């Protein structure tokens, strides 16, 4: 099973998270299938590769709670509904 979840990057006390499609059995910093965006909680910036995210969602990938909250704030689900 594939999940869309956060992968921690950046330096100490200055975390940046990549949004990745990754196998459920992998650890947090494990090998990802594809990078689909990033999230910077300090500057509150988000970048999303919408076609890649929609591809994985159509294939049955489940976003984690935090990632679905990020998508909801970025209005990504509205684009999915209107497509």
TrEMBL record:
<dbReference type="InterPro" id="IPR020592">
    <property type="entry name" value="Ribosomal_bS16_CS"/>
</dbReference>
<dbReference type="Pfam" id="PF00886">
    <property type="entry name" value="Ribosomal_S16"/>
</dbReference>
<keyword id="KW-0934">Plastid</keyword>
<dbReference type="GO" id="GO:0003735">
    <property type="term" value="F:structural constituent of ribosome"/>
</dbReference>
<protein>
    <recommendedName>
        <fullName>Small ribosomal subunit protein bS16c</fullName>
    </recommendedName>
</protein>
<keyword id="KW-0689">Ribosomal protein</keyword>
<dbReference type="GO" id="GO:0009507">
    <property type="term" value="C:chloroplast"/>
</dbReference>
<comment type="similarity">
    <text>Belongs to the bacterial ribosomal protein bS16 family.</text>
</comment>
<keyword id="KW-0150">Chloroplast</keyword>
<keyword id="KW-0687">Ribonucleoprotein</keyword>
<dbReference type="InterPro" id="IPR000307">
    <property type="entry name" value="Ribosomal_bS16"/>
</dbReference>
<dbReference type="GO" id="GO:0015935">
    <property type="term" value="C:small ribosomal subunit"/>
</dbReference>
<dbReference type="GO" id="GO:0032543">
    <property type="term" value="P:mitochondrial translation"/>
</dbReference>
<dbReference type="GO" id="GO:0005739">
    <property type="term" value="C:mitochondrion"/>
</dbReference>
<dbReference type="InterPro" id="IPR023803">
    <property type="entry name" value="Ribosomal_bS16_dom_sf"/>
</dbReference>
